[in-house]
Amino acid sequence: MRAFISFIVASTFFALSPLALAEAGSDESTKTGTPPPPALSHSHTEAAGHATPANAADPAKFYMGAAHNMRDKRIPLGLSPEMKHHQLTNMRAHMAAIQSITGLLADKKFEKAAKVAHSQLGLTEEMKQMCGMFENEDFKQLGLAFHNSGNELGKALQTKNMKKSLRALNKTIGYCVQCHEKFRQ
Ligand code: HEC
Question: Which of the listed residues 87, 176, 178 should we mutate to test ligand 1's pocket, taking the one with most ligand atoms within 8 A of CB?
């Protein structure tokens, strides 16, 4: 009898978890006005199906992990492992370029900063090639617009006008923000 009761309790827990998760997902989609894509709905059941006794012992932890995936509404690029690695390497170089440019700007070393902007963020042959490898057309266009803004940043820095330079830098960083909000690997 006791075993039977624990069975009922356990199965109620497992039966309720996917429901609770699905409900959290639909709340989110009402807020943003977009229904969750099919791939995400599928991951609800998958996450619930993979619930282990360890997860069950800490429902809060289990819930947070699953919710994190569900709420990631960014468009996946579906990259190969090589492309993923290559992209992230490039991204870290972009980050380093931004750091270098802000430091040089603080020291009013405009010429040096312009060189970094042109060579690291501008639309070089290498970057053109890299952007051309992506299948997602919107991503490709955003990447090219970003690198064009890198060229514009270089030009603004060459004027040695701090305000113009900061405005241009702000625009370039705006592309980083915009793309990261929209896409994931
Ligand atoms: C056209 C799109 C696009 C632009 C523009 C872009 N990124 Fe990214 N970046 C990505 C994507 C996609 C990822 C992978 C994110 C993910 O899968 O969660 C990424 C990841 C990163 C990462 C993580 C690297 C790692 O090793 O994990 C850093 C840092 C980064 N970007 C910095 C930048 C900076 C700085 C800029 C602007 C100067 C920038 N990115 C512009 C698309 C872009």
Answer: 176
